[in-house]
Amino acid sequence: MKICLFGGTFDPPHIGHLLIAQTVCEAENFDKILFIPAYQPPHKTEITPIKNRLEMLQIAVEGNPNFEISDVEIKRRGVSYSIDSIRAIMEETGSDINDTFYLIGSDSLLDFHNWKDSKEILNECQVIVAIRPGFRPSDIPSWILHRIQFANIPRFEISSSNIRHRWVENKTIRYMVTLPVWDYINENNLYA
Fold first, then answer.
1. What is the SS3 assignment for 35?
2. Residue 133: what pLDDT?
3. Helix (H) or strand (E) holding 163
4. What SS3 state is found at 161?
5. Nearest-CA neighbor of 44 among 7, 69, 18?
6. Phi (first) and psi of residue 32, to 5 degrees
7. What does the buried/exposed string (b/e) look like for 51-68 if buried means 16 or more CB atoms within 10 Å of the residue's CB?
């Protein structure tokens, strides 16, 4: 089975996450996109509780047979490192480097060299990168650039931080998240 792991804070999960996941799934013929919500991202301190982020993600991916959620980082607790999740999921599924991909955005690629065991990530699975506007490959060290694959998909520019900012300013996020996620944010007063 050819799977693509898609880790992130998902605070909140938005249309951009879903569009990228669906588009890369089709372009690369993945059997499954496995969303991995971070329990505690290493570089973020103020985040919505995992219970709410997980519930929003479940609402967002509901009904798509190609999408699943892994709770590997939630069960492990503590700081969420991609390498630990990659290894745990590969062991759980019995997959190897030939059928395991890890999807990141080009914004994350800029800091990839600082990730825990970044070289090991490149040895354990195939990293596939969704390009965001403004990305320049010349900003990436060559030892990384030669080991990754760029996704052949359109660019989508929606960010969770922008959604949270717009919510605080009482601006609409209606077409940035699915309606059920919008309802969840509103009902739980998440970004007030």
1. strand
2. 76
3. helix 160-168
4. helix
5. 7
6. -155, 140
7. ebbbebbbbbbeeeeebe
β-bridge mates for residue 4, sequence order: 33, 101
What CA–CA distance (Å, rounded) separates 192 from 188? 10
Q: 73-106 burial, b if ≥16 CB within 10 A, otherwise e?
A: bbeeeeebbbbbbbbbbbeeeebeeebbbbbbbb
List pLDDT tens digits, range 71-124: 999 999 999 999 999 999 999 999 988 999 999 988 899 999 999 999 999 999
Dihedral (C-alpha) 24, 54, 60, 98: value to the nearest 10 degrees?
20
Q: Show the domains of the chain with their CATH numbers.
A: 3-157 (3.40.50.620)
d(CA 17, CA 14): 5
Taking residue 109's Cβ as centre, other Cβ atoms within 10 Å add up to: 23
What pTM did the predictor assign?
Answer: 0.90
Q: Which residues pair with 102 in a beta bridge?
A: 5, 127
- How many residues appear in the chain? 192
